Amino acid sequence: MSALMLVAFCSVVSHGEDLPHQNAAAGDAVSFELDVQPILAAQGCNAGACHGKQRGQNGFQLSLLGFDSDFDHDAIARQARGRRLSIASPESSLLIQKATAELPHGGGRKIEVGSDAYHTLLAWIRQGAPRRLADEPLLESVELKQTEFALTPSGTAELSTVATYSDGTTRDVTKMTSYLSNDAAIVQVDSNGRLKAGPVPGETAVMARYMNHIRVANVSIPRTEALPDGFYDDLPRANFIDDLVYEKLSQLQIRVSEPASDAIFLRRVYTDVIGRLPSAQEAQQFLDSQDSNKREQLVDHLLEQPEYVDHWANQWADLLRPNPYRVGIKAVLNYDNWIRQQFRENVSHDEFARRLITAKGSTWHNGAATLFRDRRSPDEVATLVSQLFLGVRLDCAKCHHHPFEKWSQHDFYSFAAFFGKVGRKGTGLSPPISGGEEIVYVSTKGDVRHPVTEEVLPPAPLFGTIDLAEDDDPREALVDWMVSADNPYFAAVQVNRVWAQLMGRGIVDPVDDLRSTNPPSNPALLDALAEHFQQSGYDQKQLIKTIVLSNVYATRSTPNESNASDRLNYSRHYRHRLRAEVLAEAVANATETSESFSALAPQSRSNQVWTHRIESVFLDTFGRPDPNQDPPCERIADSSVTQTLHLMNSREIDGRIRSDSGRAARLAGSELSAAEIVTELYLAIFSRRPTADEQRYCESLITAAGEERRGAIEDLMWAMMNAPEFIIQN
Question: 139-144 and 161-165 as β-strands: parallel, antiparallel, unpaired?
Answer without folding.
Answer: antiparallel
